[in-house]
Specification:
Two copies of one chain form a homodimer. By secondary structure, chain A is an alpha/beta fold. Chain A folds into three domains: 275 residues, TIM Barrel (Alpha-Beta Barrel); 73 residues, no CATH class; 128 residues, Alpha-isopropylmalate synthase LeuA, regulatory domain (Double Stranded RNA Binding Domain), CATH 3.30.160.270. In chain A, strand 1, helix 1 and strand 2 form a beta-alpha-beta unit. At the A-B interface, helix 4, helix 9, helix 10, strand 9 and helix 12 of A face helix 4, helix 9, helix 10, strand 9 and helix 12 of B.
Chain lengths: 525, 525
């Protein structure tokens, strides 16, 4: 039988301590549902004593029943000088009404004396009687030994006394934390080997990525005997972040034979990563192990020609195992293999293959020189290839475009666009308003085209990104606009580049609409 | 004496195989200079046989003398059926005229037979005679044993035969590569322990981050006896990237007593990371260990109040050691400690401290709810706090703003802005053109203000970022604009939020100008 590892997710608490990670109480509930479906064992919902949002989350969560996960509320040992009964933040933990609670206590002598300002003995009492009180109140108590490894390096004897205090209080699980993320993998192993014989409870590990070692440290802890791993989805968290649970799952479950989540959920790892990134509104890290957009992206010509023969040549696992996919990038490092793979993927017929591929490679390289990037705008790339090979004719042409934006004093601004297009011999002129100039153009373009191509009513713009290409020219710099659009069965991306953000947006918008019309043509064919 | 580790940087070759990483030959030369100044031992400049850009880089580099680093040219063993003398890509390596060359050969039997399509014996000959030829031509030969660990797992005997062939040919350094990035740290140790006794040369390690273990694997290899680490700055590279040399340096040099670069250069690590990110035009990863913008950023209230007492409480090293800095973030997780730290940092006097801080926290939280983010816009935050506490009065007011953008057919678009402002009782109306609407507003605002505040002539906009806040509304979504400005002694960032990109840009521009005027006021005081 496979050894089971309990996963403990703290995206909703430690994760939101990461820079730019903000989740509303409603967002948190959405995330908790997804984590539950995924098969996560414990979900730390927040710190009810520290802010009203977390308290509100727990009050909403009370009416929810989770299929797999236990919800936990987080907090610290009681304050000095009060009993747990009289400590409002301990009471807030109880009011969260979760089956399990997670209590952190000071393990490093420096923290007890300098940060809390209590004696070493008083800290031990605060640990033991808070744990005992929460047990008496019927909670499962997960004890987070904050700064365990730093404490052990500084004063191993005292550190182990704090562990003994939590055990004496009745804790259920003992979590060893590398709170500052400064512990090296071989140090972690040496400390765990020395400490584990003195711990009679199941052990967990909680690490941060300040040395870039969080995944290695979590795996090492499991090899040393830990049966719980705490972390966050996408590695969000204070400073460099907590360990990324997705990478932990990928390694433990696919490569080491542990069971973290049900096997059938492995293929949802990539979706989960993207979902959390979207809810948190943090741009995804493309290089993220296992689930990143680039994790199985091949750019060098040698790599591409090899994976066409056998994908194991440059892939450590099959990307589909984790719901990711292989991508071949077209750039100035591309050889003909890249273009040929790509055109096959897009189902484009090349004429006399060698000369067509060479022509495409040249045009792509020269546009990339000007700031276009087709790696992330495959809709524009497909249109470009079809135009180059004479397989697509532009369905409409711009005659003229006027955009105005007006603002008076502190009032809201207004935006209008007037557009004139031609479709064959027919011309159409129309105008529209919008929330901003790009939205006004989008509305006007759809209005103008609607009579000719009603099918564009099915498509919708879902994302709009702007990136300044040359970092040094302020508002006069070139910008690249990337638009993501969708209809009921596909998402596609297009790109535009100009010194004028409106013009760059216009190019990407036109490509987006043309791509939709191209799809229709294919469907009719 | 400290043990010296040779650093081998492949940002210019393997790094550019990363998605969205593109460097011109001129960029590469700039990067090589910085790496040389930093004290990197070897700089791999490119693969001259694979693309004309790399060949051009080497021809430019010929006239450059590096202080510390040796430049290397990269390539593969000769093709089957030709001698090295007759293989154009081997000749291209020689034409690069570098003191050292890096040759990769197939170590994994699967690659020899399935990808190259040669027999195992033929592959050994290709390795041995290519190395011998390059040695005869007077080059130092660094041999990259591609897929060493995968090869060893599959067929250890054959793998070691390929190593023996490179040794027999006369290679100077033997680099063991985890090309696919799929090797776990304990597997890497076991394989190195078994293989090293059979290798008589200095050993290097080259790993990728597909399992999130690249830093741990590089450190483990050094502990096993490797004396060279290959990697890239910021971990750029194929798929999930190569190991990030900056994290390797941070750990080996600050925590393990090895010498990688001269001690006095440690404080330049953060600058190097940002420089490479800027040249490559890839947005920096804030969570990056040691050098990321968030690496020493504290958000949770408990963390902030603790580091005010002793920064070791939540920092594994002093950020200044690597040229980074401590940051306290203000967000909805902030307590009064965060605001008080921040105002002290900004040298703002709070009136009756408790009530001012509470008021500021509330306004910040409500604006962040609407999409503002002050973590990365400290100029706007300082203005906001000074406005809330009555320490800053807006120096000018907008009366009206009109922006137009016109485009006819395929011609370039034109943009114009008309602006009317008031300064006290005086009014000024003016107009300007620009490369796009935001640039036109920027130009018009400066023109209008110039007579009143000539000091704004000193400031310059250096970056302009746009981010869509709500992912699901396409061009009608809210956008956040962030502007970075500088004068001769400071860089500051400001933010604007609106559904209208022009309006959001306007807010950020106004804050940027007001911040400059605020600085002037402070200087005069």
């Amino acid at each position: 039988m496979q050894k089971k590892i309990m996963l403990y997710d703290t995206t909703l608490r430690d994760g939101t301590q990461g820079e730019q990670v903000n989740l509303s109480a409603e967002d948190k509930l959405k995330v908790a549902h997804r984590l539950d479906e995924m098969g996560i064992t414990y979900i730390e919902g927040g710190w009810p004593g520290s802010n009203p949002k977390d308290a509100r989350f727990f009050s909403m969560a009370r009416s929810v029943s989770f299929k797999n996960a236990k919800l936990t509320a987080f907090g610290s040992t009681r304050r000095f000088g009060v009993t747990p009964e009289n400590d409002p933040s301990i009471q807030a933990i109880l009011e969260a009404e979760t089956p399990a609670v997670t209590l952190f206590g000071k393990t490093w002598d420096l923290h007890a004396t300098e940060i809390l300002g209590v004696t070493l003995e008083q800290n031990l009492e605060m640990i033991e009687d808070t744990v005992r009180y929460l047990k008496k109140e019927g909670r499962e108590v997960i004890y987070d030994a904050e700064h365990f490894f730093d404490g052990y390096k500084n004063n191993p004897e005292y550190t182990m006394k704090t562990i003994a205090a939590a055990q004496a209080g009745g804790a259920d699980i003992m979590v060893l934390c590398d709170t500052n993320g400064g512990t090296l993998t071989h140090e972690l192993k040496a400390i765990m080997d020395a400490a584990l014989p003195q711990i009679s409870l199941p052990v967990g590990i909680h690490v941060h990525d300040d040395c870039g070692l969080s995944v290695a440290n979590s795996i090492m802890a499991v090899l040393c005997g830990a049966s719980m791993v705490q972390g966050t989805i996408n590695g969000y968290g204070e400073r460099c972040g907590n360990v990324d649970l997705l990478a932990v799952i990928g390694n433990l479950q696919l490569k080491m034979g542990y069971q973290c989540i049900p096997c059938e959920n492995m293929k949802n790892l990539t979706d989960l990563s993207r979902f959390i990134s979207e809810v948190a509104n943090v741009p995804p890290v493309n290089q993220r192990p296992f689930v990143g957009k680039s994790a199985f992206a091949h750019k060098g010509g040698v790599h591409v020609s090899a994976i066409l023969k056998n994908s194991r040549a440059y892939e450590h696992i099959d990307p589909e195992t984790v719901g990711n996919r292989r991508r071949v990038l077209v750039s100035d490092l591309s050889g003909k293999s890249n273009i040929e793979y790509k055109t096959r993927e897009m189902d484009i017929k090349l004429g006399e293959a060698a000369s067509d591929s060479a022509k495409i490679v040249n045009i792509v390289k020269s546009l990339e020189d000007k700031g276009y990037q087709f790696e992330a705008a495959e809709g524009s790339l497909e249109l470009l290839i079809k135009k180059i090979t004479g397989q697509f004719r532009e369905p409409f042409a711009l005659e003229s475009l006027r955009v105005t934006m007006e603002k008076d004093g502190d009032n809201d601004s207004t935006s209008q666009a007037t557009i004139k297009i031609s479709v064959g011999d027919e011309k159409e002129i129309t105008a529209a308003e919008g929330d901003g100039p790009v939205n006004a153009i989008d509305n006007a373009l759809r209005k103008a085209l609607n009579g000719f191509f009603p099918v564009i009513g099915e498509m919708k713009l879902v994302d709009f990104q702007v990136r300044v290409i040359e970092g040094a020219d302020g508002t006069g710099a070139k910008v690249r606009v990337r638009i993501e659009s969708r209809d009921s069965n596909e998402i596609w991306s297009t790109v535009g580049v100009s010194e004028n953000i409106i013009e760059a947006s216009w190019q990407a918008l036109v490509d987006s609409v043309q791509y939709k019309l191209l799809k229709e043509e294919k469907n009719r064919a």
